[in-house]
Amino acid sequence: MNRRLGLAVAATLLFVYVSATDLTITFNMKAKGMLGSGTSGTEIHYYTSAYQLTRGVESKQDQLVDFDKGITYSIDHKKKTIAKLSFDDAMAALDSLNQAQSGGASTMMASLFGDPNDVHVEKMGMVKVADHNCQGWHIAVGKMVMDLAADPSLKLPMPDAAYVKMTQARAAQFAKAGPMGQTFKRFYEELSKIKGIPLKTHLTAFMGSDVTSEATKVETTPIPAATFTLPDGYKVTDMGETLKKQLAKGQ
User: Fold this and answer.
1) Distance (Å) of CA 215 to CA 100, 102, 163, 200
2) What is the mean pLDDT of residues 224-245?
3) Strands across the sheet with 119-129, in order?
4) What are the structural domains of the chain?
5) Cα–Cα distance list, 204 to 31, 35, 137, 171, 184 (Å)
6) pLDDT in tens, 100-148
7) Which of 26, 170, 238, 246 is deepest in the core (most CB within 10 A)?
8) Where are the beta strands (DSSP E) in the chain?
9) pLDDT tier at 1 (50, 70, 90 boundaries)?
10) What is the pTM assigned to this prediction?
C-alpha cells in the first residue's frame, strides 16, 4: 500500500500556485492501516514550472508529473516498473466513477467510508512548522479527517490549471476503488480550496488508516533537470487502459 500512502499525502498539496521559484520540501512520514501498512520514512517533494516529483527515500516509490505532456508516472524502483496515466484518461475515469454510483454503492459508502457529501471545514489557530508560520485547518469528508497546517505565503511554481488537472489524475487512481473513490474525490476538492502549502498533516480515515507528515526543510534553490528523468529499463504500463477495463467491468 506504499503507493497509496504517497498518493494520500500528495493529496494534501492541492492549492493555488503562481510563483516561478523552484521548491523542494523534505517531509518526515509515518502511516499505518489501509493507507500505509506501517510505512514510515522520508519523502522529498520537488516542484518546478514543468514537473512535480514526490520521492520516497526508503520506500523507493516515486510519483512524477510531467505538466507539458499531461502525464503522471508511478515509479516503483524495487520492482522496476512505471505506471503512466494521462490527465485525459484520468478525467474519463472520474466521469465513469460519477456515473457508476448506484443506491447499493451509496449504502456501502455510508457504512464503510461515510457520506462524501458530509463535509466540514474549520479554520484553526496558527502554528510554526520548519520555521514557517502556518494556518491550521480541520477538514472532514465522511470518515476521512485531516488536521493540517499550511503556510499561505508559499506558492508552487506550476500554473493553476495544470496543477488542478494533476490532482484530478491522482484522484482517478482511486476511481477503481468504487465507494472509496468518491470519498477521495470530494476530499481532494475540499483540500484544493486551502491557500498555501501544508507543511504538517494528520490524516485519519477508514479501516484504521492514520497518516502523518511534517516538513523538516523548505528550500527554494534551482532543481537540476535530471531530477525529473524517468529511469531506463523499467517496464511501463498504461494505467489509463487498466482503469477503463476495471470500470467497464464494474470493479
Assistant:
1) 38, 40, 21, 6
2) 89
3) 119-129, 132-141, 144-151, 197-204, 210-219, 23-32, 40-47, 51-56, 61-66, 71-76, 81-86, 235-238
4) 2-248 (2.50.20.10)
5) 10, 9, 14, 18, 13
6) 554 445 555 556 677 888 899 999 999 999 999 999 999 999 888 999 9
7) 170
8) 23-32, 40-47, 51-56, 61-66, 71-76, 81-86, 119-129, 132-141, 144-151, 197-204, 210-219, 235-238
9) very low
10) 0.77
Look at the chain and count its residues. 251
Longest dimension (CA), the chain: 51
> Can you tell me the distance from the alpha carbon of 31 to that of 67, in angstroms, rounded to the nearest whole number?
29
Q: What is the dihedral of CA 67, 156, 81, 245, to 10 degrees?
A: -60
Distance from C-alpha of 185 to C-alpha of 10, rounded to nearest angstrom: 13
| CA–CA dist 188, 116 (Å, integer) | 11
CA angle 136/62/201 to nearest 5° reads 10
Across 104-209, the runs of DSSP E, i.e. the strands, are 119-129, 132-141, 144-151, 197-204
Radius of gyration of the chain (CA): 17
In 3-state terms, what secondary structure has residue 48?
coil
Rounded CA-CA distance 177/168 in Å is: 15
Query: How confident is the prediction for the chain on average, in pLDDT?
Result: 79
- Report how far apart the first and last C-alpha atoms of the chain are (Å, whole number): 18
> pLDDT tens digits, residue range 42-75?
999 999 989 999 999 999 999 999 988 889 899 9
- Collect all residues with Cβ–Cβ distance below 8 Å to 69 and sequence separation of at least 6: none
